[in-house]
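Students often ask what a holo structure prediction actually looks like on paper. The answer is less mysterious than it sounds. You provide the chain, you provide the ligand, and the output is a string of discrete structure tokens encoding the 3D arrangement of the protein together with LJPVP2WV.
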Amino acid sequence: MFLFDIIQRTYTAIFPPTASKNDDAIRIGLLGASKIAPVVVVNPAKSHPDVIVAAVAARDSERAKQYAKTHGIPIVHSSYQALVNDPSIDAIYVALPNGLHYEWALRSIRAGKHVLIEKPSCSNAIEARKLFNHPLVTAQNAPVLLEAFHYQFHPAWQTFLSEVRRFPGAIKDVYAGFFLPAGIVGVDDIRFQYSLAGGCMMDVGTYPLSCVRQIIGREAILEPIDVKYRGIAHGSDGKSESLQIDEAIEAKYRTADSINVHISGDEMTKGGRPSFLPASWTRNMPSLRWPKSSVTFEPVLVDTLVRENKSPLQHFVQRTVTLWNPIIPTFYHRIDICDQHTLRQENDIAKTWSETNYKTAYNWPEGDKRASIYQDWWTTYRCQLEEFVNRVKGREGSGVWVDGAESIAQMEAIDRTYKKAGLKLRPTSTFEL
Ligand SMILES: NC(=O)C1=CN([C@@H]2O[C@H](COP(=O)(O)OP(=O)(O)OC[C@H]3O[C@@H](n4cnc5c(N)ncnc54)[C@H](OP(=O)(O)O)[C@@H]3O)[C@@H](O)[C@H]2O)C=CC1
Ligand SMILES: O=C1OC[C@@H](O)[C@H](O)[C@H]1O
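The corresponding structure tokens follow.
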């Protein structure tokens, strides 16, 4: 049953049922014939009655035409500005290299389009503050602008957060990591180009940073105390440091409440697997590490057992809550709630034991009205599209949203991490509006 469910969810997510479109469906245009748009917008839109992927623009019109044919997109523009100016388009999906997000989000907003902008929203916090505080964005009837932190929209992430919030103890340690096996991202990829605002912290690293910030709360400032990175190994001058590109990153932070926060990200994960082989054999082999987010609380005194003629026993519980696979939870994820119990008699430990409960959340809880709208096979991107449309249409929605203040705070945390690593902030766009 377990395997059957995984296969069924995965199959339906990849080949979703097609919805017939409403007359007032939102017409989305894709900026760039990007690799990711089919996953984030084209496929999720198939099952959404209020979304039509109506146009694509690419720098090379032949490529745009081919892309449009492959994905059944009716309108092709041979420049980004032509798409932005197209009066038949209501919303734009900006899936360009990070360094172009700021400019094209602003150009799209200026044209009155709603914008779904890929993460990270900008190249650095200077851009993020300018974008999200821009009068065209903050005006009362401004178009909707959303940074595509898709994982937050899935019930798995929200259920994990509820589990974290409902435990009465203080948070002690937080960890999050996201990894790609070596060989997926080529060395010439946009992710490894400084001029396009590349780097691991700007790509896979931005997820764990966002996850830990969600856990500790958006107001808590992460102060980096130790940041280590592995620079990309190639470079015309042979010096990886001069490229300013982190291929992998490990960062440790402290909050004002003394929470220890640790994130890791790797664009080219190698070695360590399978563990029965000598490390020297596997050092250069691509390896798979599951993304996860995990929280450990300070021990909480839950009971005091008073005993005759003996000192009382104090019962402490220390909880760790872990979400395995927050980024692609639809196929499979698991929330582990692990309680470490300790009975203490004065300063001695009388007994310890542990209990673990497991949970999944492919949908909202039964009885929640959102559960009758969402489907178990919805990907994080389908959930995100649902909420983007709800915002544009002024509907109530699930309550999950990534607002401008959050996107700015995320870029500020990225900048602080780069500064601590001794790397330059990603370059600021010269585009002015
Ligand atoms: N949410 C998610 O899960 C994911 C998000 N992303 C994000 O989406 C964005 C795009 O990523 P991805 O689709 O992998 O990227 P691609 O390599 O496919 O590039 C996207 C588009 O950028 C355009 N482009 C414009 N200028 C340049 C340039 N100087 N060099 C190279 N390309 C250029 C190209 O457009 P044209 O067609 O006009 O040539 C290309 O189609 C990034 O911000 C990334 O972080 C990426 C993957 C997953
Ligand atoms: O989800 C993702 O996985 C792969 C990354 O390179 C990408 O940019 C990220 O968004």
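The chain is about 30% helix and 25% strand.
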